[in-house]
Amino acid sequence: MRLPFRRRNDARGQSLSPIAVLLTLSSVALSPVTAISFTPAPATNLDLKDLGRVALAGDFSGISLFQFEEQNERPFITNGSQSLMARMPNGIFGPVVTTDATILTMCTFVEGNGKEDGVIIGGNFTSLQLPTHGSESPNYKESKAIALFNPNTSSIETLSGLEGQVYAVLCDRDTNSVYVGGNFVGKDSRNAIAWVGGQGWTDLPFRGFNGPVNSITKASNGHIIYGGSFTGLGNATAPTKRDGQVINLSSATISAGSSTTREGFSDPNNIVCSTSGTDGTGKTWLLQENSPGFWQATFRYGFRPTKLRLYNTHQDGAGTKTWRFTALPINGIMNMTYVDPVTNKNATCTSECPLSNNKTTKFQDFHFVNVIGMNEFRIDISDYYGSGGGLNGIELFGEDIFSYAINDFNEPTCANLEFKSSSTATGPWQVTPSHQSTAEYLTAQISAPITNTSAQVVFSPDIRESGYYSVNLYTPGCLQDDTCASRGQVHLTGQMTADPTKSDPVDKTLYQTNNFDKYDQIYYGMVDASSSSFRPQITLTPLAGQDLANITLVAQSIDFTLINSTGGLNGLFEYTPGRPVNVSDFTASAVNRLGSSFSGKSAVNALATSGDTVFVGGNFTSPSADHVVALNTKDSTNKTLDGGLNGEVKSMILDGTTLYVGGSFNSTSVKSVDGLNNVAAYDTEKNTWSPLGAGVNGNVMRVVGLTMNITGSTPEFVVSVNGDFDELNAFDKNPAVSVTGFGIWVPSQKNWVQNLDLQLESIDGVLSTSILDRSGNGSLYAGSLISSTLGVRDIAGFGDRLSGFPIKIQAPTKSSSSSSLAKRDGSVSDSSLQGVVTGIFDQENKRNLTILGGHFTATGSGSAINNLLIMDGQKNNEVSGLGDAISQDSTVMALAVHNDILFAGGNITGTVNGNEVKALVTYNLANKSFNPQPPSLTGGNGTVSSIAVRDDTDDVYVGGSFTQAGSLDCPGVCFFSTSSSQWQQAGQNLGGTVNTLLWVDENLLLAGGNLTINNTASTYLATYNPKTLVWDAYPDAGQLPGPVDVLTAGTSDNKQIWVSGTASNGSVYLMKSEKDDGSSWHSVGQTLQPGTKIRGLQIFQLSESHDKHPLIDDKAALMLTGHIVLPDFGSASGVLFDGANFRPFALTTNSGNSPGSLSTVFSEKQNFFGKDGKHLPLVFVVLIGLGISLALMLLIVVAGLILDRIRKKREGYVPAPTSMYDRGSGIQRIPPHELLEGLSKSRSGAPQM
User: Fold this and answer.
1) For 953, which DSSP code?
2) pLDDT in tens, 294-311
């Protein structure tokens, strides 16, 4: 059990030593943020060069490639926990520190000597944690409300000493200090304190305020300005009637040492609730004669006593003479003060405190010099009167006003108090051990539906003095009882004054997800003393309507602390460092005077400084300005900012000459300005307000700056808006946009990011504060965000990088029935099929079409396009659909194009040319009109899940859940002949539901699903021979553990296949057929986690080899698309498998903080196994080689003849005469002997015989 942590000045006014050890920090003087690094993920090395255009399709609003190990696609956290984040090189927000609650403020602390210690972060958290990877166990570091993070070393320094929440920090190099404000206690201060470099926590001269500090800024004159909900300087004070709370001894475990054996006097419990002063059996406890001893009480809760009352015994002359009080478990002997009954003077004692033996002295009171926490104590009796010591009664008192959920810890009934502290618990509460907390507490396990009557605790304190109180709820941490996963929110209500007009009602909602103990202020204001007609009470219940199947509710205690105050302030205070504070003349400060001009119960929420001007925003009115005003600290003049706004300002950020404000308003106070709905911009030079679009439809809680690359490579300043809204209001030509309380305004575009037709990153969640480095390399952010490198909906191009398509698929609206521009939850065979389910690139007959099918709505030329979209690249990417021919509730699940005819199958209903269509619709892409439609497919679910065209035929095969095509019996698989325009049976011995089809070759079709052969044999994978018209079970298909959902070819010849489906135990399997005949199946094992849904499989070639593994070639990888949950990582929408290891490939996000998914990857060319898709058989390779050889030989012969002819011509050869005329005229008759003689003469040199 942890001892009570809260402390205030001791009961007698002496100064106490600090709780916290003062910390001295040191760090290397480097940039405070640029040292943060992220781990690059291994390159995928996908070889896409033979595929043409490639697209990734699914149901998402943002998509990223997995490039850094710190990336994930987990939704942003909504239980109140937040992180300190930096940006990865690809723009994704990555956590560098996580907390168990909210980070509300940050600043970079640079000491006066120039040494950068790091980043101060403040909020309402109780622990910090550095990110973990894989299976690493989280290491939580207890750090309440404030800490220092060193980005250079990724180390956390806990700045121990504060209890509560920090709302504002100001790092001031000039004073080597961090000024801290909020709702906390620390040292001897409340709500304001300073942390000084090299020294630690230091009380400010004024010791804090009587209410929370919301914002701190530094004026140009060096003064520190505080804004908040306070009316004066102040701190905790003791009640007028001291020691008024009775500590319950009756619920403690009482023990003793050396007790007498006399009957009726040996029980140490005799003196509990014994206040009559009369000795006797059952009323007195005695020690053994002539022996010292002790009396001890052990409690199940911690407390801080201020007074001990002892009743001495006089039984048979016995009595206690000297004693000491030891606090446990610290084993400290306590210093006491008392009034000597003889001299009637104050005296002190420690180890031998005297107790009077005078029978007229009924009891003696001893006050504790030091007020400390304990949960056990012992009274050691060292000397005695008569024959032995003993006591007749004991009481313990304190000044902490608590009401405990466990009623046994409240004031005892025997104290006879008129309005004792108490509690009433109803519901399934159980007592939980204290573990590391200050007290045992109640725990309730509640199942949905969660209502405010599921369980409750009513706390009733013992308030004896009316006044201003801080009311705080104590909540035990969830790590100690292992309930973090099921903790939720609680709702606290109550009334503090008899007259409701004199106080605001308690109405507070808090998270209980804190890792370690915490306390939250739930009320500050007037509290009436308890009376017969009124009693202050607080009721704790679960927050109704929480979206949790089971919730763990805890209740421990509520504390009421009386606050003393100087008064004279109203939400603003100016402090000059190094000078004393004159509490008698607050009006000397123009800042204080400005606050005094505000109406009562005002609150300052935000401060910003520009030059000599301090801007003040909050919930206040004054004669000159409402809710926002500016003060010139140089000449003490006020500027009304065009009269201010007509509602509360909750947050502000200043960028140059533009002040961005968020809150609850819709115009200025003096004149109407359209579009100022809860967020606005003020031009400090022109003194004019302008809207951000038309604002948002709910309250804005935070406006925070960040940077984005909008139109170039240079980051520019943009404004994030967070709050309780779900729509960016329509303005100009921009329609309303559904959001989840988050929007980003781009000043350079004068529009919201969601409206810009640009390829930008996607960001959603909560952004609470930031430290901006405009270079884009060193910014730090706090909040809970999800982000993607590309914000596109449902379809993205993939090549060297991700890219968008010139298609506008609309985001879901709040109600699917209220607008046609929404994703709808129609009745489909798989209700999770949303977005783009399938797609193809069509290039037949010189077309350039991108065709998408699924369950979506897109924007066309003047009308909405539902579920099937055609984009024509030859007509400037003109987008069209099928009009109203198919129902908006349809889902297109499969597409194919054959002979200019588009076949679209799925869960489709509609009317074409006056005829009903179901499951399949056809459309002529050449003339852009509907064909005569095939008869509808009916029976089963009436859906088509797969379409496969048989090569070199006009047969289009469809598979799905149906039993008839028109009047033709055709269960599971049927084919439509485009030449005869009619359905035909694909065999007669198949039944069941077909999920996927694949042609192995022109004479072998594979079908996966939940099938039967010949109405008897069940199988999950079947083969069909179109020549024999017979279906058979795939060889060894009995090894498959469940129906096949998807399949793909594993090799270029389609003989080896990959299949995936759902096993009978609900797990997802992935298997490969190793042999051509399917006789050998290999499973990757149960490596995919529950929640996995595989929608697509595809082999990709790689540009670089991976390690060799038996299942996949080292130059290939298998891509899985869908929602794949990997061990030690979580979900990914695209995953690559190398035969042994799964690696995330693509991550998606979706609207509404829900996970995205990928349905398919499709490409322009189907060359997934290399160019041309497959290799020629060897015989054709030989014949082609022979043909090439013969051709080369012929070319050589012809070339030789040509060259010979050229040579002869050059040497003077002429063709011999060939005509009879030439012969007759050109040759004279020569006698034969002359001819022969001439021949012999021509051979000179030849041998003769």
Assistant:
1) S
2) 999 999 999 999 999 999
